[in-house]
Design goal:
14% strand
């Protein structure tokens, strides 16, 4: 009897009835046609667009409806005809494009643009956490929308694909910018970025060891410059050296060593990441005043407050100013300097996301099924779901995971 009981128990343990089927654990795949709107960017010198005509063609071929405001692609050198031929509908007012169920912008919407939003819509845009105010957050909350910050979106590898792509562009661009302003044609000190036989190489100091720093270091080393990298995170410095594949000078942010190198540098790149709203290091005005005349500072993190006391926000039309005869380049949106490349990079990220949203039946379903997308959500159904924003402004927030679980 005992043996028979054991056999029956084994059969029961292996019975599929005891285990939930895969279809019960995940949302059933059901393709849904999406309605996507691409407004014309109104923010100053924002030249990028979220989808290229090729991406629009791919999505419209899948049955999705895409409306684009006239002229939205022009800064990236895409014409309305390019988008029309790809299957998009050209509309001529923001009111029309904001009829879409999903609105894809690059810059955060202005207060005027927020008024076009309506309950139940999904907004995908940048958030610009450093410039965020409680009034702005409340204006979005009142609209009862879903809001996703693409800077916060993570992929299955837990990296932030949009931040990574834009950082690669910024890092590759800074050395081109430095070379431009070191030349005498731009009233620079008249040196080549790099070095030639018999002439000492130019000196490049990079503050930070993230993606911007990695790509800037690659470009500088490729030109033959002497590169020194500073960061307080040893693992970042180690990773940067490994990725570059060369032994280069690295150091923690020891002010005595750093300031001595800054005084000798031809190019200084500020690429530190603010932690808890504060820069790991702020270079005092007096130190900048002791740098070599004609040297250039490129403060990539100016949108987070910058890491030089002398930094002031500049623009693509007036990118530099001089202080203590040191050239300062403090444009916050370097990737917008090459909008066609940046738009293609963004499009390569957003197109698969929209395909996945469609596959699972909508925004709510894809958030329920794919946890890595939830990191980008800061408003869900009109409720704040981002703890950092809540902490910054003393606001209440709800756990997104719980809201989705209850809904489903």
């Amino acid at each position: 009897m005992t043996e028979r009981f054991a056999v029956e128990l084994g059969k029961l343990a292996n019975s599929p009835a005891l285990y939930p089927k895969e279809s019960m654990l995940a949302v059933e795949e059901r393709h849904k046609s999406l309605f996507i709107g691409l407004p014309k960017e109104s923010s100053f010198q924002e030249n990028r667009i979220g989808l290229t005509p090729d991406a629009v063609k791919q999505l419209t071929d899948q049955g999705h409806k895409i409306w684009i405001e006239a002229g939205a692609g022009s800064p990236s050198k895409y014409s309305d005809n390019d988008y029309s031929e790809a299957g998009a509908r050209i509309v001529y007012s923001p009111e029309e494009v904001y009829e879409a169920g999903i609105v894809l912008k690059i810059a955060p919407p202005t207060y005027d643009e927020i008024e076009y939003l309506r309950p139940g819509q999904t907004l995908i845009s940048a958030l610009h956490f450093g410039n965020l105010t409680s009034d702005y957050v409340n204006a979005l909350l009142r609209k009862k929308i879903n809001a996703i910050s693409f800077e916060l979106i993570r992929d299955k590898s837990e990296s932030k694909p949009v931040v990574r792509a834009m950082s690669e562009i910024a890092g590759s661009s800074v050395m081109l910018i430095a070379a431009e302003y070191l030349s005498s044609s731009n009233d620079g000190k008249g040196v080549i970025l790099g070095g030639i036989t018999g002439v000492a190489p130019s000196k490049v100091v990079i503050m930070g060891a993230g993606t911007v720093a990695e790509y800037a270091a690659r470009a500088a080393l490729g030109l033959g410059a002497e590169v020194k990298v500073f960061d307080n995170h040893i693992y970042k410095l180690r990773r940067l050296k490994h990725n570059i594949g060369q032994q280069i000078f690295t150091s923690t942010l020891d002010k005595a060593i750093l300031y001595n190198e800054l005084k000798q540098a031809d190019v200084v790149i500020g690429a530190l990441v603010a932690e808890e709203g504060r820069m790991a290091c702020m270079v005092e005005e007096g130190v900048v005043g002791q740098m070599n005349p004609g040297s250039i500072i490129i403060d990539v993190c100016i949108d987070q407050g910058g890491c030089f006391e002398t930094s002031e926000l500049t623009s693509h039309s007036r990118p530099i100013f001089r202080k203590y005869d040191i050239i300062h380049y403090c444009v916050p949106n370097i990737a917008s300097r090459v909008p066609r490349t940046a738009s293609t990079a963004l499009s390569n990220i957003f197109t698969p996301i929209f395909t996945e949203i469609s596959k699972f039946g909508g925004i709510n379903e894809v958030l329920f099924t794919n946890e890595h997308y939830r990191s980008g959500v800061y408003i869900y159904k009109g409720s704040l779901t981002n703890s950092q924003i809540a902490k910054k402004f003393g606001m209440r927030y709800k756990e997104l995971g719980l809201m989705i679980a209850v809904r489903n």
